[in-house]
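call fold(seq) -> tokens
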Amino acid sequence: QVRLVESGGGLVQAGGSLSVSCSASGVFFSINAMAWYRQAPGKQRELVAAITSGGRTNYADSVKGRFTISRDNAKNTVYLQMNSLKPEDTAVYYCNAQVLTLGEYDYWGQGTQVTVSS
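ret:
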């Protein structure tokens, strides 16, 4: 059983910064890509940022230059540093990981709330 546990998030004023992290635990061979998604009320879940096991990253246009995704492969942990936050960044942020066990499967964290006040 693989678990993704998120931490961080919370409430911040516009222009502020927050960070979230997500650690994978359980029995598996390796973790390939890891990513952060978000879902605002009434909207579809969208990709925020992703990072491969080799460190290649990609970002949604809406967060480029403000958010930074990183990972520590030894700790099976992915981070998202969020700067210059805007009210439209308010959402539940979900961690996603492509985990190699007997096959490759997608796993999701439980979500963590990020609220940016204006």
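The first strand starts at residue 3 and ends at 8.
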